[in-house]
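Allow me, if you will, to draw on your knowledge of protein folds for a short while. I have a record of one protein: its chain in single-letter code and its fold written as discrete structure tokens. I remain grateful for any guidance, and I place the record below:
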Amino acid sequence: MECIGNNSNNVDNVVDNRHSETCTKDNKSDETNSDKVSEDLSDESHSELKIPKAEPCENLDIKVIYNKKKYDVSAPSSLLISEFKKQLQDLLGVPDSMQKLMFKGLLQDNQTISSAGITKGSKVMLVGSTLNDILAVSSISKQEVAEMEKASTVKEPLCKQKLHRKVLDKGVPEDVMPGIKNLKESLPPVPLSGMLNKQGGKVRLTFKLENDQLWLGTKERTEKLPMASIKSVISEPIEGHEEYHIMGLQLGPTEASRYWIYWVPAQYVDAIKDCVLGKWQFF
């Protein structure tokens, strides 16, 4: 009987010990899992705190030079160049799409003022023309507009249209540059001169590639046209004088805003189109 009683006590002790060990293991497992969760949360909190520092933003006083005049303009250093152009459009009346800003080279729209290296007191040059300036170059009468619309409907060659005959009938100007048909040449290093406009006055074309401008010179004035303001260029040979062309520079949205040039040497026509429309030539 005593042996039976002792065995019973021993069994109970074994069960209690095993239960205690199991509880201890469970507690250790819980503690381990708890530590891992704490570490994970700690890592997440550290990763969330790694926020890139924003660039400091300050207002800069910038000097904008346009048509030989200086304008004081204030703008945030984080402002995009495209937005800065809109600010200048409101101030100077030059459409942002026709602006070119120069500061140690041509500024790109996706740059910010600070990333372009512009600081307080920097001088930025603006190249561009107002719409009024551009359209003034191509003033045209209602009668001429009607004639052009009629001609476009009939689709006569340019050289046979009444609008152009009054200039062409005067003949080839004596001082015009020699023309060569069926030949393509690069632009000469000197201005193209001796040509005529629709009033019969002398016209000179000077290509200022470093400023992205075409200088349209007459006896009365010289218009400095940004290349971007010229929407298209059309030309046709002059019948009986195929070594010369009639050329139209599209300065506005309609045909009425074309600036006509007569007796353009044929060998330079393609080079003029490439230069004006963006395919610059290197000499």
